[in-house]
Hints:
Blueprint (H helix, E strand, L loop, with lengths): L1 H10 L5 H18 L9 E3 L10 E7 L4 E7 L7
Antiparallel strand pairs: 1-2, 2-3
Helix pairs in contact: 1-2
Amino acid sequence: MEEAIKTVRIHNWKWTRLKALKLLNYYLNLISIKYPDGLSPDCYFVVPGYEHVTRDQPIVKYNPAEGAWFISVEQKFIINK
């Protein structure tokens, strides 16, 4: 969750942590109301407005073990060191 908040704040540099958290919780609540029983484990929703982000892209994903939606991040490229 912290990585997702950081990504939202980076792309909206004047936002506070609380405002970024409210945005993420807004989409988390919308999706959890629409799909209360989740989708397949490999499906996730990208937070609108962050589709272009390639590193630490904020996503909403379902955890079938807990039976709940949660905020996470997705990497769209691999960093070779």
